[in-house]
Amino acid sequence: MLIRALLQVGEEVLRRRLSSALTSLEVLVLEPPNDAPAGSDLGHEAFDLLVTTSDELLASPQESISRVRALPDRPEVIVLSEPNDAGGRARLLAAGAFAVLSPSVSDDELRATLQTLVARHRKTSVDQVIAERAGGVSRLADFSSRSPAMRSLLAIARKVVDADTSLLIQGETGVGKEWLARAIHAEGPRATGPFIAVNPSEVPEQLLESELFGHDKGAFTGASRARRGAFELAHRGTLFLDEVGEMPSHLQVKLLRALQERSVKRLGSERSLEVDVRIMSATNQNLVADVESKRFRQDLYYRLGVMTLTLPPLRERREDILPLVDTYLLQFRAQLGRTDIRGAAPEVKAALEAYSWPGNVRELINVVERSVLLCEEDRITLDDLPEELSSDLGGGHGAASLWQGPKGADWNSLPLADARAAVLDEFERQYLDRLLRATGGRVGEAARRAGIDRRTLYSKMRLLGLEKGSYKTPRLPETG
Domain check: are 91 and 150 in the same one? Predict the structure, then answer.
C-alpha cells in the first residue's frame, strides 16, 4: 500500500528535512492547502500520516488530534516537539499522537525513526486492507487433482510463484481463476502485501477509472474528497483484474501506460505516483479473437499475458468431480451442523459425474451446499439435487433415467466401474446428440461449444453411433 504523509510544518528547513527523509522511504509527501492549521478541515484529502509540530496544533492538542483521527482514513499524527518539554510530550501522547519526535536530532536519526514509524503504520494499513478485502486464503495445495491437465497447470503455476511476471489466467466462469491468483500471491514474495481485486464488468464505466487510479477532490461532480485507487492500495502487493476483457477501450490505453511506466495519475491530478504492483488478470473470453476484432488492444494483451495459464473446465476433468464433492460435503456437513449425513447415494454420484457442469466448480459448490441443506435422510438422494441434475437434462433423459439405463436396463447388477462407464457413455451420447441437433450437424461449431477439438468429437461420434448426416437441417424449398 502506498503511504501518503501530509506535511504540515511552517519552518522551511525542518520541512525540507522531513520531506527528504519521507521521500527516501517511498512515502508520498503532500502539502496542506492554504497553510491550514492541524485539525482544521482536511477531509478533502486522503492521507495516512499527518506530520506536524506542536506549534502548528490548535490550542487544544486533544481536540486537534481527535479531529484528524476522526477523518475517513483515520490518519496517525506524528508531532515534532522540543525534548526539554517533557510535560508537553506526555500530553501529546495522552491525546493520541502516534509518536512525538525531537526536531534537533541528526538527519540519519530522524530518518531511522521515521522508517520505524512508517513500517509500523504500513503493516497495520495492509493488514486492514487484507481483512476488508479478503476472499479467503488460498494455497496451491487446495487444487489437488487427479486430472493430468490440471496437474500440469499447477506445476507451471508453482514455477511462476516467485516471479513478478504479469500473469493472465484463462478459463470459463466458475473454474476458480481468482482462487488460483490468490494462491499464487499467497505463496510468493508479495504475500505480506495486499491482494486487490477489481472486476471491470461490476463497476459502472463512469466510475471504473476512479476505481483503478483514484481521484482528487473536485475531479468530477460529487467528488467531495480525494480517493485512493486500486493501484495505490495494491502497492507492494498484487492487483488482480478479473474479466479484463470487459475493460472499456479508453481505459485500456490508460492501463497500458500505467503498466509500462509503473506509475498512475489520479483523476483531476497532474502528479504521477510511482507504484510497485504485480499484475494478474483473468478472462473467460477469447482475447485473441477480441484482439483480431479490435475490441482489445494487442499491445495490452501481450503486456498482460507474459505468462498465460488456462484452467480446464470441470467437464474435461471428470475424475475430479467426486473428490471435490467429498471435500465440500465434509465442509458443509460441519458448517451446517449436518454431521449425520454419511455421503451421497450411488445414483447421485452417477448423476454428478454425468452432468456437464456449465458453472464449473462454483456450481458444484452451490449444489453440494444446497443438497446438505435439503437432505432429510442420512445420505443425499436424487430428490436433494437441483432439477437440472435430477430431472430432465434434455430430450426426456434425466439423471434418474440415466441411472436406470437405456430401455429400463438395471445397472445395479453391474460392478461400480462398469456402471459408471455405462452412465458416462449414455450421458455423452445424449449430450452430443442434443449438441449436434442444436448446431445442425456442424461438427466444428459443436466441438467449439463442447470445448474439444474436431478430431476428438468425430472419434466420440463413431464410438457412440452418431451420424453427422442425420443432423443436417433440411433446406426448405424456395417459394415463388
Answer: no
